[in-house]
Amino acid sequence: MRQTFAALALAGLTAGAADAQCGGTSLFDTLTAEEAAYLTDAAAKTPHANGLYWSAQDGDTTAIIVGTIHVADPRLDPMIAAIGPLVSEVDELYLEATPVEENEMEQALIADPGQLLITEGPTLPEMLDEETWQTLAAAASARQVPPFMASQMKPWYLSMALGTPSCMIELLASGERGLDHMLMAEAEAAGTPMRALEPWNTLIRLFDESPIDVQLDLLRFSTVPDDLAEQSMVAMMDGYFEGRTAEIWELSAIVSKRLNQGDDAEAKAIFDLYETELLETRNRNWVDVLEKAGPGNIMVAVGAGHLPGDTGLLRLLEQAGWTVEPYEG
Prior knowledge:
Elements lengths: L1 H13 L18 H12 L8 E6 L2 E8 L7 H8 L8 E4 L3 H13 L12 H4 L2 H13 L4 H4 L4 H8 L6 H6 L4 H12 L3 E3 L5 H7 L3 H10 L4 H16 L3 H15 L4 H28 L4 E8 L9 H7 L3 E4 L3
Parallel strand pairs: 2-5, 3-4, 3-5
Antiparallel strand pairs: 1-2, 1-6
Helix pairs in contact: 1-4, 2-14, 8-12, 13-14
């Protein structure tokens, strides 16, 4: 049982957007005129809205910054062919987590599954009304998570599991990984040192510090019908490979509004709270780490959603005195 939950944790905490097995209609193709206008306007107002490759300079430290996804897709092959050789030319590769942190997480979760599970007090069926629980249980079953296991998950963790469309499950189980792991392989082959931008348990700690009622609200608001989840994943992946980083982030607001018409303000407040914790807080911490990097050349590979925006990694680096430009290598 402990190993099962650890495997689920590794899938949930290291998986990112989607995979090529999620096919069909893109959410971009279903947007109303109002939704399309919102997306265009939001992206136009967002600093560093487009692009996966950036260069940042601060004194005698130069960084190549790469926006990644954390799961496999054949379209990554030409990307790694282009940027992979650069790993051997830098002094260090900075990542959200290196193999060291991933191994620490696996061992820690096997030893103490209580970091993800409800180990005392009421379980989820006891905290939720019957209709809501049955909806969640059905969604969990569709993702190969038995309801008895889902009932013991902390609300934030089940939210992550349900955010994975069922079309992704087979790929995640296969162990195929995304661009960050491709870059790790390049670093291992080249002997380039790797550094983690944060401890392995950062995400767990940020989620776990949220009050239980906030976690339950997140769980209620984040349950997406599988067809809409798949459309979102297709759009996110297509948008990623087109470098539309701001737009693919804003898609979540459109999905939330479609799902929570009557509770849109409350849903927005919940997601804004988690956006602050999971993106802004981490981005600021990463800047502190990068300020201590160098001198020399480094590569920074982080999820593409961390790059754009007023509190995105790129803008925060600029505010710290770095010169940030599109990478022209």
